[in-house]
Amino acid sequence: MTYLWPKLSLMGRKLLYLFLLLSFTTQSQIGQGDYFSEAIGKNIRKYTKNSQKAYAEHDFERAELLFDSLINNVINGSYLDNFKVRKLSGRKIELYKFEKPIFLMTYASWCTPGVGEIPALNEVAEKYYKDIEFVILFWDTKQSVRKSSREYSNKINIVYVDEKENKNDHIVQIMKHSLGFPTSFFIDENKRIVDVRRGVLHPYNEKYEISFELNHNSFLNGISLLKNLGEDDKEHLASKQNP
């Protein structure tokens, strides 16, 4: 066997090393995470079966643990699929058109948000919209979405998918039916999913102040994964985590 390495010049060795490094890096990036639809498609049947059993047995703690395990071990690190959505104008755009990190919340018009949820999200979006794309994705018709969108800040992008138009789009079906809604996805600028969280749970008749505070803290905690928060928000979160 002939070894070429000793015969290479210093520059040649550097170029070869750089080539090998770039090849390894590219392969690692490809292998580190599937697309969301691929990652969850491999695991969703088992998760659904076990989750439904836990809820049927009123074992809510186990159901929550199953959800957390799915997120942490399967979904986090996967990449958001690119698919088309509609703006309220009716124009179609691709999700990858959003170039900044994305806070993506999936919703339906028939879901009833907590009394403080939308005001809390509006306040956070007004403060951080320059650095993060805030996107609410409704699974609904244009008419229903237009009515629901009136409460949201104009710093929030309202888009929708009418599933009647997407009967053959398996990505839409998987994203809509796998995790339920409302569900929040925190996505970095490379479209890698950093975390996924369910909406804040509290009694339907919870006071506005409590609902606002719970949702506000949840949103801040999530976007802190995408951007460094302002000092006032950092101190606020720290005071809630360490009272």
Structure in a nutshell:
By secondary structure, this protein is α/β, with parallel strands linked by helices. The protein is built from nine helices and seven strands; from the N terminus they run ααααβββαβαβαββαα.
Largest sheet: 7 strands, mixed
* Terminal residue distance: 68 Å
How many individual helices? Answer: 9
Tally of DSSP β-strands: 7
Radius of gyration: 22 Å
Low-pLDDT segments, ≥5 res = 1-8, 12-32
> Which structural class fits the helix and strand makeup?
alpha/beta
- Order of strands side by side in the largest beta sheet? 2-1-5-4-3-6-7
| Basic shape | globular
Q: In sequence order, what are the helices and strands, one letter per element?
A: HHHHEEEHEHEHEEHH
Q: Helicity range of the residues?
A: 40-55%
Q: Please indicate the percent range of residues in DSSP E strands (runs of 2 or more).
A: 15-25%
Mean pLDDT: 82
Q: Would you kindly provide a written description of the structure presented here, covering whatever features stand out?
A:
The chain has 243 residues and is an alpha/beta fold. The chain has helices spanning 10-32, 36-41, 44-56, 60-75, 117-128, 142-148, 170-179, 208-223, 231-241, and strands at 84-87, 92-94, 102-107, 133-139, 156-161, 183-187, 193-198. The chain is 47% helix and 15% strand. The chain has a seven-stranded mixed sheet. The termini are far apart. Residues 1-8 and 12-32 have low confidence and may be disordered.
